TrEMBL record:
Pfam families: Glyco_hydro_1
Any GO CC annotation of this UniProt entry: cytosol
Residues at the active site: E370
Record key words, sorted: Glycosidase, Hydrolase
Species whose genome carries this gene: Halanaerobium polyolivorans
Record GO biological process: carbohydrate catabolic process
Name listed for the protein in its UniProt record: Glycoside hydrolase family 1 protein
Protein family (similarity comment): Belongs to the glycosyl hydrolase 1 family.
Gene3D superfamilies membership: Glycosidases
SUPFAM superfamilies recorded: (Trans)glycosidases
Amino acid sequence: MIRKELKDFPDDFLWGASTSAYQVEGAWDEDGKGLSVMDVGNHPEDVTDFKVASDHYHNYKKDVALMAEMGFKTYRFSIAWTRIIPEGTGEINQKGIEFYSNLIDELLKYDIEPLVTMYHFDLPLALQKKGGWENRETVDAFVNYAEVLFDEFGDRVQYWLTINEQNMMILHGDALGLLEGDPDNVKKGLYQSNHHMLVAQSMVFDLCHKKLESAKIGPAPNISTVYPASSKPEDVLAANNYSSIRNWLYLDAAVFGRYNATAWSFMEEKGIIPEIKDGDMEILKAGKPDFIAFNYYTSASVEGDFKDEKKESNYEGDQQVVDNEKGLYRRHQNEHLEKTEFGWEIDPIGFRTTLREIYSRYNLPLIVTENGLGAYDKLEENDKINDNYRIDYLKKHIKQAQLAITDGVELFGYCPWSAIDLVSTHQGINKRYGFIYVNRDEFDLKDMRRIKKKSFHWYKDVIESNGKHL
Ligand code: BG6
């Protein structure tokens, strides 16, 4: 193979890391915050809920100081809708505005660019009670909420993300604690919700450009390259099916303002076509993102042969595991990849392929807003956490990001998951991702002190050297 001369990461590359409000903040009912679906969701009983999480709400200054010590250029966090507008619509909670305003100022004090996700799974419960995203009124509620954010923080926030992992909410709402009951029965409603989210997102793209001259905004789905199990045409077709339904449905709508044809025909076949109101397609066309943010943890592999019925039910309720769609695609175990302790396949080369696929399809600048490895970290003597496995995972992915840049992909930032330990979507606090350890267990809050992991020091050096020391 020809060895390429590697291109450097751009000088202004946005190195940082990510979190989301409900997974890190705690203070679930403080200072006027309303309830979100995550505060009352169907959460597994053997792991912690999100009530205290990493108590970032009360420790944000300490946490931001540690991020600054690592040299972060950006910090991706989400705003809890229910802190700003407790009931989803109506009254604004000044204490919530104050919290995020202070957080933003704290970041700017250290020259850390705030990268703000407007909505990361935690829909206000009041809206859910009225039908959630299935109810068209939630579109207006989201646009109104976005306008409040632009008015309050638009003077200081340059980079905005609309909706985190809309595709995972639709495909794996059960794993994320968003759905109750049999997912098959709720599918029609899901694709209606999906349509409403797409419309709301486009309206918010548009609003952002109208209100804030220099701000940039983009979607934040979870995108993964999809491998066919073999070169058998049926498998290749299955991979194409899955990629259309998992990836391109979301990004084609966000960028091109149209429904992906393969995904549309899937919805048609299943009888789950959403109601599209007059003017909706024009809205989708009008709102344009400035960049694409995406989360990547692993690739996916599928097969198209459904003869062996025994292999049918292998879905484990996890957002990174393919949920089979009969006749279209079925999960395949990729025997070429190692797995994390939690069974997620590790595929750095798939990351490079994913970067290329997105860039060549949409030709927009890209930023990675999640990528990382969840593990049972061990706190050793003298406050040491030797998370070499995390360093190894991130190192390999950053290397592939650099190769993608060398391939011509316009990548302007990298924010692994997560800046600090936080509560995983459905596997508790002990599935850790952070550079900073939070000293608590599932049900014992201990002293919640912050401890720098080995990866903290490693990442500091990566940032300092602009990706030269890996
Ligand atoms: C993504 C989400 O799906 O993956 C995050 O955007 C989540 O909220 C992350 O935490 C890791 O998944 P998990 O299930 O290990 O928390």
